[in-house]
Specification:
Blueprint (H helix, E strand, L loop, with lengths): L3 H24 L7 H13 L13 H14 L3 H22 L5 H12 L3 H4 L7 H19 L5 H16 L9 H14 L3 H26 L4 H9 L12 H18 L3 H16 L6 H19 L21 H15 L3 H17 L6 H18 L3 H29 L2 H14 L4 E5 L1 H10 L7 E5 L12 E6 L1 H7 L3 H11 L2 E4 L8 E6 L1
Parallel strand pairs: 1-2, 1-3
Antiparallel strand pairs: 3-5, 4-5
Helix pairs in contact: 1-4, 2-3, 3-4, 4-7, 5-15, 5-18, 7-8, 8-10, 13-14, 13-15, 13-16, 14-15, 16-17, 17-18, 20-21
């Protein structure tokens, strides 16, 4: 018979699952229209038995295989596109619960709050992008190692889960390399202590087998064992994050000021505050000398250091671009570790005073002082520290953990509201209505995102329609039965197409665009003529 506490935990888990479902059903942001539509197309091709091995995205097999399966079962639609990521996100939450099975309920609540305080974990929970896949599979791998340390499950089973999960992360996206410093730390520490040696031997053997099969299959299918890396090189281009090709000053700036500004803007600074508080407690007492206590703090610290300093290139030093997507793999681990650190220091008054002072300092230098999504989590941390400093500690810890969880959840809830304001559902409905009522063999001139979304809405069956990008294609009225120009704010914003782009294209092509009557004005349609 389940205890009352178990029922509460189940209720909380179902509540988080409900949050993920509600976020997708009622607050879906929509699609970026570029990378995600590329994955949709490749997944569709895979489901049809076609594949382009020259596209470096084609080697991200986990997202493509799961999405292709979803399309086969449920056809091409937004739910099918987001379902694998939603299930993986729910898997992350489940493992957070499992790792806090023996912890206080307040510690579990704090872990959930710390995970979702980075709003992008909820934002990407239903997106057709590989980053949540990397996050989930890395966390599955890390979870199996923690089970090994706890003496749960067999060594062989943990080694299999660890190895397969890391492989699935590798075939999701190359940013899995960011976790390498943490894994090296575990290996070196365990070898030095003479522990878990059988586990690491099994992991090494499994990796040799798995990657031999993987690269052997690539060689068989493409004729080039390094086809994946050659495809990446062929598709690479100079951008604002190509630090290895820019002056060294840009790298210094990225590693210092830019990174601190980034973690402050994205609420990652909360993890840093907790790590510093735990380190202060450890330096002045023996609270952290216990192996488990030491594990949480060091793991969290290595994750943050790796996020900043680890290179994503094996041939040159190139730290990761400051795009939150690349760091999603760290947040489940950081949330778990930092919640445990808070639980460990909750009776260390000096450490709590230090943590409160760090919060105040972070608040004072925060450039987003008027943005509640950045300030409320910091204030929540301050309230938690204050409550833990007061008498009646146990009672205050429950109250404080609940309050900070609500404060940490606020950025995700606020972003749900923002996503709703983009009105993707209306754009989609109007776009589909437009495609249904247009006559066959229509050529549609539009932004490249509108073209990508149009093909997606048509389930990649463009028999009756041809989409052309106004930035790239010229008007070809002689070979077109009927031509229209469409404009939509949602698509234009994601394409970075401005209003004058359309006017300049019409003028350059010598065309007149006659606006049709459109009461909703969601998608503006112009009939084109010379």
């Amino acid at each position: 018979m389940k205890s009352r506490l178990d029922k509460v935990r189940i209720g909380i888990f179902l509540g988080v699952a409900g949050l993920l479902a509600i976020s997708h059903i009622y607050y879906f942001y929509g699609h970026f229209g570029v990378d995600d539509m590329g994955y949709a197309r490749l997944a569709f091709d895979l489901s049809q038995g076609n594949y382009d091995w020259g596209n470096h995205y084609a080697y991200r097999l986990s997202i493509l295989a799961l999405t292709a399966l979803s399309y086969t079962l449920f056809s091409i639609n937004d739910l099918a596109s987001g379902l694998p990521a939603m299930l993986l996100s729910l898997g992350i939450v489940y493992l957070l619960f499992d790792l806090h099975r023996d912890a206080k309920l307040g510690t579990l609540l704090i872990a959930l709050g710390l995970y979702f305080c980075v709003r992008w974990n909820l934002f990407y929970a239903d997106k057709l992008m590989p980053d949540i896949y990397v996050s989930a599979f890395v966390f599955f791998s890390w979870w199996s190692y923690q089970k090994l340390r706890q003496g749960k499950h067999s060594t062989s089973l943990n080694a299999i889960v660890f190895s397969l999960s890391l492989f699935l992360a590798f075939v999701s996206k190359g940013t899995v390399i960011l976790i390498l410093p943490l894994l090296l730390y575990y290996v070196i520490r365990d070898i030095a202590k003479g522990q878990h040696l059988r586990f690491w031997i099994l992991v090494t053997c499994l990796h040799v087998i798995i990657y031999s099969v993987y690269f052997g299959a690539i060689a068989y299918l493409t004729g080039d064992i390094l086809a994946r890396f050659h495809a990446i090189d062929a598709n690479s281009y100079f951008n604002a994050c190509s630090y290895s090709q820019m002056p060294i000053e840009e790298t210094y700036k990225r590693l210092s000021i830019d990174f601190f500004s980034f973690i402050s803007r994205e609420n990652i600074v909360i993890y840093l505050i907790i790590i510093l508080t735990g380190a202060i407690s450890g330096m002045r007492s023996r609270t952290i000398q216990n192996a488990n206590n030491h594990e949480w703090l060091v793991t969290a610290a290595i994750c943050l250091l790796s996020a900043n300093f680890m290179t994503i290139s094996l041939t040159s030093y190139n730290p990761t671009c400051l795009d939150i997507r690349h760091y999603l793999l760290f947040f489940p681990i950081l949330a778990c570790c930092c919640s445990q650190v808070i639980a460990q220091v909750r009776e260390d008054k000096i450490a709590l005073w230090a943590g409160l002072a760090i919060c105040i300092a972070a608040l004072a230098i925060n450039r987003n002082i008027y943005d509640s999504t950045h300030i409320l989590p910091l204030i929540g941390m301050m309230v938690l520290f204050i409550l833990m400093l007061l008498p009646q500690f146990k009672h205050n810890y429950r109250i404080g953990s609940t309050l900070i969880t609500l404060a940490l959840l606020y950025p995700s809830i606020q972003y749900m509201s923002y996503s709703k304001s983009l009105n993707y559902a209306s754009v989609k409905r109007e776009f589909i209505d437009l495609l249904v009522r247009e006559q066959p063999n229509t050529t549609i001139y539009c932004s490249h995102v509108a073209g990508n979304l149009g093909k997606y809405f048509l389930a990649f069956d463009s028999t009756n329609y041809k989409f052309r990008d106004i930035r790239r294609d010229s008007f070809d009225g002689n070979n077109e039965a009927f031509s229209i120009l469409i404009k939509n704010w949602y698509c234009d914003w994601h394409s970075e197409v401005e209003e004058n782009t359309y006017n300049e294209w019409l003028e350059y092509e010598g065309l007149v665009g006659k606006l049709r009557k459109n009461d909703k004005e969601i998608i503006l349609v112009y009939d084109l003529k010379k």
